[in-house]
């Protein structure tokens, strides 16, 4: 394993007795352990799920006032799950390896009985009557859900500044953005408020926050994780995936949430590849015979020098591990952003039509004139949606409106074909493709809020994977000149998510050998800023 | 200079059922240009010989069998409703009949 | 509302050539909905037949019902359509409170079936071929109940209550090409077409196709042109015409109304119109600002449907014969005259008679019951024949009792009344009401003697060889036995007695 063991995490003396568990926790901070380590400690009886869950709830209580990663903390429910798991384990029941390991879930994922807002005012107070498939799987695995994490409203954004419920702060520098849209999940994991989190990625919303918070984020192959219960942004691009501190943890979580779901028509029928096995194989640091393709078009202008320097160093490490590094060209990637601008708003304008104040969520009655259904819908949507959501709905309505479909949405779908062909050709020459995940480190809160285009450019390297449906991962690969983390993106062919884990785990192991510790250990200690009334909803 | 008129934005806002304020209408008129620019960009390569991809992975014929599953309890179905009456969702006056 | 000018129908069709087009929506009789497992039972309590999917809750996703697709293919094949090699669903975006997602999942430019035809038969036996443009799959919407208005109608209502039980029930929409060249028979053609489709849906077993439940709904397009050679005129679309009679009336009405407009030198407005069952008129719908801008695009949450040719052929092999062909066959087998068969068809009694014959009755008797006594009952009570509380098996049993001489026709009608009143099977009614015929010749002979004695002049005429008045004697005997005698046997006994004398 990649040098992450905490003393005493294996072969515990004294079996599963409470004194042993107490002794173990006395010597280590449960919130600093990886999910894999927690899994081992739980199975060995060194700790209980209640202890682990409580430790994370305590951490949230201590620091989330400063970070604001959570929109809702589900302490009672999480502890109830933890107690149940502990009881079942004590009764000798065979449990899932991650049973008892707590997790945070992005608020775009529907959770039965827990408020789900997707970061929007229009869903304030909505408590879903059902669970997303991936939530059912987390529950079936016995994983306590700590709460729901902050995000850009309806996952539209790259900074989490578009949340209706306030900014999330980057644990590396509280004045900076944590990326987006899944800034809450990435910040929660980076701030040790949760060992694991769920994100969703429509154009980079898992990978880019991972890059700017020094965490691992994986966008699985489209169809690899059920979308049933994800509040849709752009149906043909959305994909849920793991947000973790280690590559192995992502693999463990991916195997819990992934695999076929009959309630999602776009769910892949075949079983997942062996992801955990690939991660363990990769952690040996040997990549002999693996062909790594550097995408020419994703390594050019607009990248911070520090981002480029870390990328080149990482390539050197891969070469040193036996990988063959080649340059590949994906000439149509330069059209990806334009296609994305047409597809995302089009689908979003339709997906978000259901938020109309008739069946659930906010209803705003206009104060002037007759309160007809039509006018109540308009007033509700005018008041309930934020600027970015309105902007994209109007863009999408325009792109789909009479007479434009073929030229707009239709043409964008053709670009998708061209990008898929680029990927196919590139994967003839390479087993995985690589690039920096994001062009810059985290920018300051508010810095780009009024510049949507600059904000969108953040996603330039991550969008092609969503358009083509291929899987991608961001692995932290150092800090830039400003001391802030940067990420290394790995892309694999559709259904070959295991390649991400092998190469990602290898890079992680090689980097940490050099650093002597995980990157996150360099993040500054967070000030204690307890949750106040009204922070957690 | 914006190529999309404020009136066009107002029409779209009506289609999308979003009440927009005057400043919002004016601002969005300028921002719609991103669509026009994107269209110009994709048109460079989206030629007639390129097939469109509507789904990222080419699945077909995904069906469920015609089997009844548990319905939501009616109280759950109505739990989130801003207004309900007699097991139904209460909605404001509807002017158009389709 | 100002009075609408109408031109007398005969004058209208003398001056103009009507062209019609019909869109029929049929609710498929699947157990679960189009895109989720919610049940589809009719008449359930509001919002008890919904899942997160049919309620359009955030995060929910559709998965297509295989049986619904199979039914759509069956309908397509029965209408002699091509079945698409690959087709997709699209989203039709519009805001309306009974559409839970504010888009309807439908098929747009890629219907599952297209380019077909169906022969329909008018009441006089004329066969008209109607060309089918397409048949596509879509989902139904929920139901609004308007509250606070005096009439329960939309106008004047203060608010509405929405039940989503119907939302997501699978529909197939069948669209004809313009039906031309039928002249003044356009209303009749429209009616016969919808009736034929209803028969097809039932024959295929894809829907109960009950008009009164809204299982089958028709939108009728009507336009007029000066001559059959002229280009098509501007059409109106009258929505939700939900009975055969209304289909015919709505077409007639629109022809008269449009003729008046054209006669006055004005132009017909292309619009959606509403049919008013009570008054038999159509009125203009509200003009919508966003009409026709439905922003269709391929539904990304569903994958394409690509029915393999093997599957299509498998389905084709299960299809029953077409209604017109089937009628011809049954008419031959049953030996009905053309007019008799038409009446049977128009009464919707084919299946009932078929089942009655299958249960042992001869075709003539089966027809006599269903088109006679039962048709009258169904008319008086305003109930469809098929919904009367009597089965074809019971009718066959009833006729069996007559054939065996245990009851006569008059008693049989009383037995039937008992069955309809829920008193049990014909056998049971005969037993419980004591309706068996008097077969004791002794008792009958006494009655015959009495009748002959009471009417000596008639008896004399009969004896003299004039059998004409014998009915009077038989009638008297029947009266004396309160109808419980077998009239045939009475006649035999009367003649016997006279000859003996």
CATH superfamily of the domain at 1-47 in chain B: Glu-tRNAGln amidotransferase C subunit, N-terminal domain
CATH topology of the domain at 1-47 in chain B: Histone, subunit A
Name of the level-1 CATH class of the domain at 1-47 in chain B: Mainly Alpha
Structural class of chain B: mainly alpha
Determine the strand fraction of chain C and express it as a percent band: 15-25%
The rounded Rg of chain C comes to 29 Å
Q: Give the strand order, joined by hyphens, for the main sheet of chain B.
A: 2-3
Bin the strand percentage of chain B.
Answer: 5-15%
Please state the structural category of chain C: alpha+beta
Strand ordering within the main sheet of chain C: 3-6-7-10-1-11-12-13-14
Q: Which value, in Å, is the CA radius of gyration of chain B?
A: 22 Å
Largest interface: A-B, 78 and 55 residues
Order of helix and strand elements from N to C terminus of chain B:
HHHEHEE
Describe the structure.
- The complex is a heterotrimer of chains A (537), B (98) and C (501).
- Chain A has one domain: Amidase signature (AS) domain (Amidase signature (AS) enzymes, Alpha-Beta Complex).
- Helices cover 39% and strands 11% of the residues of chain A.
- Chain A contains 17 helices and 11 strands.
- Chain A has helices spanning 18-26, 35-43, 49-67, 75-90, 133-140, 183-190, 207-213, 247-257, 275-282, 305-320, 336-351, 373-384, 387-400, 406-429, 452-457, 463-468, 497-515; strands at 70-73, 103-106, 145-149, 196-200, 216-219, 240-244, 291-295, 324-328, 432-436, 472-479, 485-491.
- Chain A is globular and about 70 Å long.
- Chain B has a domain at 1-47: Histone, subunit A (Orthogonal Bundle).
- Chain B has helices at residues 6-15, 22-31, 33-43, 74-79; strands at 63-64, 84-85, 88-92.
- In chain B, strand 2 (84-85) and strand 3 form a beta hairpin.
- In chain B, helix 1 (6-15) crosses helix 2 (22-31).
- The longest helix of chain B is centred in the middle third of the chain and has 11 residues, at 33-43.
- Chain B is flat, with a radius of gyration of 22 Å.
- The model of chain B has no long low-confidence stretch (mean pLDDT 89).
- Chain C has 501 residues and is α+β, with helices and mostly antiparallel strands.
- Helices cover 39% and strands 18% of the residues of chain C.
- Chain C contains 17 helices and 15 strands.
- Chain C has helices spanning 9-15, 66-78, 186-204, 244-263, 309-317, 323-334, 338-346, 350-358, 363-371, 373-381, 392-403, 409-420, 426-433, 441-454, 456-463, 470-480, 487-500; strands at 17-27, 64-65, 82-83, 90-93, 103-106, 113-121, 127-139, 143-147, 159-163, 170-176, 216-225, 236-241, 271-276, 281-284, 297-298.
- In chain C, the strands form 3 sheets. A 9-stranded mixed β-sheet of chain C has the order 3-6-7-10-1-11-12-13-14. In chain C, strands 5-4-15 form a 3-stranded antiparallel β-sheet, with no helix packed on it. Chain C has a two-stranded antiparallel sheet with strand order 8-9.
- In chain C, helix 11 runs antiparallel to helix 12.
- Chain C is elongated, with a radius of gyration of 29 Å.
- The mean pLDDT of chain C is 90.
- At the A-C interface, helix 11 and helix 12 of A face loops of C.
């Amino acid at each position: 394993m990649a040098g992450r063991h905490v003393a005493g995490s294996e072969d515990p003396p004294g079996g599963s007795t409470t004194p042993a568990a107490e002794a173990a926790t006395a010597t280590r901070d449960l919130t600093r352990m990886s999910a894999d380590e927690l899994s081992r400690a739980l199975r060995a009886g060194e700790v209980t799920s209640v202890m682990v869950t409580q430790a994370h709830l305590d951490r949230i209580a201590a620091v989330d006032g400063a970070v604001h990663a959570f929109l809702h903390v589900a302490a009672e429910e999480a502890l109830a799950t933890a107690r149940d798991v502990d009881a079942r384990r004590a009764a000798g029941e065979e449990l899932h390896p991650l049973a008892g390991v707590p997790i945070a879930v992005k608020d775009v994922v529907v959770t039965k009985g827990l408020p789900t807002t997707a970061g929007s005012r229009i869903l304030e107070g909505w408590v879903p009557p059902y669970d997303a498939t991936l939530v059912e799987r987390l529950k079936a695995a016995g994983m306590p859900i700590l709460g729901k994490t902050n995000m850009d409203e309806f996952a539209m954004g790259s900074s989490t500044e578009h949340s209706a419920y306030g900014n999330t702060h980057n644990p590396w520098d509280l004045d900076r953005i944590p990326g987006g849209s899944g800034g809450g999940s990435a910040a929660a994991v980076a701030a040790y408020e949760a060992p694991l989190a769920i994100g969703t990625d429509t154009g980079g919303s898992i990978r880019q926050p991972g890059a700017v918070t020094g965490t691992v984020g994986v966008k699985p192959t489209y169809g690899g994780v059920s979308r049933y219960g994800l509040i849709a942004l752009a149906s043909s691009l959305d994909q849920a995936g793991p947000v973790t501190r280690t590559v192995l943890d992502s693999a463990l979580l991916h195997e819990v949430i992934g695999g076929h779901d009959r309630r999602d028509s776009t769910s892949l029928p075949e079983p997942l590849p062996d992801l955990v096995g690939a991660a363990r194989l990769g952690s040996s640091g040997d990549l002999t015979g693996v062909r790594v393709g550097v995408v020419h078009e994703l390594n050019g202008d607009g990248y911070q020098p520090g981002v480029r320097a870390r990328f080149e160093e990482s390539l050197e490490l891969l070469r040193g591990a036996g990988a063959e590094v080649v340059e590949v060209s994906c000439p149509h990637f330069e059209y990806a952003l334009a296609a994305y601008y047409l597809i995302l708003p089009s689908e979003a304008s339709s997906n978000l039509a259901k938020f109309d104040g008739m069946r659930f969520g906010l209803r705003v009655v206009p104060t002037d004139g007759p309160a007809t259904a039509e006018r109540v819908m308009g007033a509700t949507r005018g008041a309930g949606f934020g600027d970015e959501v309105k902007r994209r709905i109007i863009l999408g309505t325009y792109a789909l409106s009479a007479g434009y479909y073929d030229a707009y949405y239709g043409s964008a779908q053709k670009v998708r074909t061209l990008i898929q062909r680029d990927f196919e050709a590139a994967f003839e020459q390479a087993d995985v493709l690589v690039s920096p995940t994001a062009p810059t480190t985290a920018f300051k809160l508010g810095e780009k809020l009024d510049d949507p285009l600059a904000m969108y450019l953040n996603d330039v390297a991550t969008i092609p994977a969503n358009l083509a449906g291929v899987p991608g991962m961001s692995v932290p690969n150092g800090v830039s000149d400003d001391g802030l983390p940067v990420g290394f993106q790995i892309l694999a062919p559709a259904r070959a998510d295991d390649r991400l884990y092998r190469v990602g785990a290898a890079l992680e192991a090689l980097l940490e050998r050099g650093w002597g510790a995980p990157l996150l250990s360099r993040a500054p200690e967070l000030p204690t800023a307890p949750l106040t009334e009204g922070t957690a909803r | 200079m914006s190529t999309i008129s404020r009136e066009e934005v107002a029409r779209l806002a009506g289609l999308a059922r979003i009440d927009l304020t005057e400043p919002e209408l004016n601002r969005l008129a300028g921002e719609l240009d991103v669509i026009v620019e994107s269209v110009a960009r994709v048109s460079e390569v989206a030629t007639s010989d390129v097939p469109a991809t509507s789904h990222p992975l080419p699945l077909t014929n995904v069906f469920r069998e015609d089997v009844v599953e548990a319905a939501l309890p009616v109280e759950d179905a109505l739990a989130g409703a801003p207004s309900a009456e007699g097991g139904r969702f209460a909605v404001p006056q509807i002017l158009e009949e389709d | 509302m100002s009075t609408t000018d109408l031109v007398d129908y005969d004058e209208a069709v003398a001056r103009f050539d009507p062209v019609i087009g019909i869109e029929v929506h049929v609710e498929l009789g699947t157990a679960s909905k189009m895109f989720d497992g919610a049940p589809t039972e009719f008449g359930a309590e509001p919002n008890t037949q919904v899942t997160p999917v049919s309620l359009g809750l955030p995060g929910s996703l559709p998965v297509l019902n295989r049986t619904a697709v199979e039914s759509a293919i069956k309908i397509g094949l029965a209408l002699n359509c091509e079945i698409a090699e690959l087709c997709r669903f699209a989203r039709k975006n519009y805001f309306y409170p009974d559409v839970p997602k504010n888009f309807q999942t439908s098929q747009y430019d890629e219907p599952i079936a297209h380019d077909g035809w169906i022969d329909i038969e008018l009441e006089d036996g004329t066969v008209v071929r109607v060309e089918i443009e397409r048949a596509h799959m879509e989902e139904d919407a929920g139901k609004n109940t308007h509250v606070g208005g005096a009439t329960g109608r939309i106008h004047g209502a203060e608010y509405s209550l929405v039940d989503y039980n119907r939302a997501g029930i699978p529909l197939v929409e069948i669209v004809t090409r313009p039906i031309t060249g039928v002249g003044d028979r356009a209303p009749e053609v429209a009616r016969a077409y919808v009736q034929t489709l209803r028969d097809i849906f039932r024959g295929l077993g894809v829907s109960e196709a009950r008009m009164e439940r809204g299982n089958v709904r028709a939108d009728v397009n009507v336009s007029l042109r000066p001559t059959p050679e002229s280009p098509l005129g501007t059409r109106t679309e009258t929505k939700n015409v939900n009975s055969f009679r209304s289909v015919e009336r709505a077409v007639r009405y629109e022809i008269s109304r449009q003729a008046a407009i054209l006669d006055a030198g004005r132009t017909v407005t292309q619009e959606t119109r509403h049919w008013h069952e009570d008054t038999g008129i159509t009125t203009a719908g509200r003009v919508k600002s966003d009409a026709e801008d439905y922003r269709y695009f391929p539904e990304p949450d569903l994958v394409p449907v690509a029915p393999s040719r093997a599957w299509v052929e498998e389905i084709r092999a299960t299809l029953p014969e077409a209604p017109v062909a089937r009628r011809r066959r049954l008419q031959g087998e049953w030996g009905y005259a053309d007019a008799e068969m038409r009446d049977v068809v128009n009464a919707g009694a084919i299946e009932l008679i078929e089942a009655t014959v299958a249960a042992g009755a001869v075709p003539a008797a089966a027809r006599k019951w269903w088109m006679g006594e039962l048709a009258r009952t169904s008319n008086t009570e305003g109930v469809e024949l098929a919904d009367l509380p009597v089965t074809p098996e019971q009718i066959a049993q009833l006729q069996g009792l007559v054939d065996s001489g245990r009851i006569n026709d008059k008693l049989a009608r009383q037995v039937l009344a008992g069955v309809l009143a829920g008193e049990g099977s014909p056998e049971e009614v005969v037993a419980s009401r004591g309706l068996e015929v008097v077969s004791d010749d002794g008792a009958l002979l006494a009655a015959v003697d009495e009748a002959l004695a009471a009417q000596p002049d008639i008896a004399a005429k009969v004896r003299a060889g004039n059998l004409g008045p014998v009915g009077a004697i038989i009638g008297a005997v029947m009266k004396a036995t309160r109808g419980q005698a077998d009239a045939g046997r009475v006649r035999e006994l009367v003649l016997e007695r006279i000859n003996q004398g």
